[in-house]
Design a protein that fits this description.
Layout: H1 14-31, E1 33-37, H2 38-54, H3 60-70, H4 73-86, E2 95-99, E3 110-115, H5 148-258
Helix pairs in contact: 1-2, 1-4, 3-4
């Protein structure tokens, strides 16, 4: 008989059970998903969800209360910093249990337990909620159905009216286009004339600038040519002097040999 037996002891004493649930809760907060047996996952769900609701109010008292259960400061900081922001709008039901195949050794029922808001496959932001559309019932004895002859006559009249309207529209824009084309052609001719005149003016201005630059550079070129000629003349004089000196030395050597 199982009367009043709410808590699953998990075949462990209280100290061992509390330590195990604290470790599982901290690992779930850090990794957002763990694999365990279904019995432990159901016990962990009742253990961790009150702590997550406590983390919505971030103050020192709530942090100390959560730390007294988890005994892990890194898990507490992760819970209050990241997890609480994601779960702030959710009014409970923070975890999800996904059952898997039984364990190979002892055939125990296995499952994944995860935080709901961190699974992108189930909660993707792109999905839009399907709106419920109500279908209205039509009353009995409504409008009578039209005969085939009446519908055919209405269609012919509508097609004739549409053809007349299209012909009128096609004639009106032809006149407007003629009016619009004449000023466009005149404006294009004037633009072409202006462009040709501007090009000729630019060419003449460029020629004048070149002539003026050549006049300015002419005296400088003359000076440079004169300097080059002077340098060349000096070089030639030096070469002639060297040749004369060599000749004189050769003659003196010959005279000495003859003596």
């Amino acid at each position: 008989m199982r009367h009043g037996k709410k808590l699953n002891h998990l075949k462990r004493k209280s100290a061992h059970r509390k330590a195990m649930l604290a470790n599982m809760a901290s690992s779930l907060i850090m990794h957002k998903r763990i694999k365990t047996t279904t019995a432990k996952a159901k016990a962990l769900r009742t253990y961790i969800e009150p702590l997550i609701t406590k983390a919505k109010t971030d103050n020192t008292h709530s942090r100390r209360v959560v730390f007294s259960y988890l005994k892990n400061k890194y898990a507490v900081s992760e819970l209050f910093r990241d997890v609480a922001e994601k779960i702030s709008d959710r009014p409970g039901g923070y975890t999800r249990i996904l059952k898997t195949e039984n364990r190979f050794g002892d055939n125990a029922e296995m499952c994944f337990i995860e935080l709901v808001d961190y699974n992108e496959n189930y909660t993707s932001p792109g999905k839009s909620k399907s709106k419920s559309t109500k279908s209205r019932r039509s009353r009995r004895g409504g409008k009578k159905k039209k005969t085939q002859e009446e519908t055919a006559a209405e269609q012919t009249t509508e097609s004739a009216e549409a053809s007349v309207k299209t012909e009128e529209k096609s004639e009106e824009p032809s006149k407007d286009e003629q009016k619009k084309e004449t000023p466009k052609s005149e404006s294009n001719q004037t633009k072409e004339v202006k462009s040709t005149e501007e090009k000729t003016e630019e060419k003449e201005a460029s020629k004048e600038n070149k002539v003026a630059e050549e006049k300015k550079e002419a005296p400088q070129k003359k000076k440079e040519e004169d300097q080059k000629a002077q340098k060349e003349g000096k070089a030639e004089e030096k070469d002639a002097e060297k040749k004369n000196q060599k000749k004189e030395k050769d003659q003196e050597g010959k005279d000495k040999n003859e003596e």
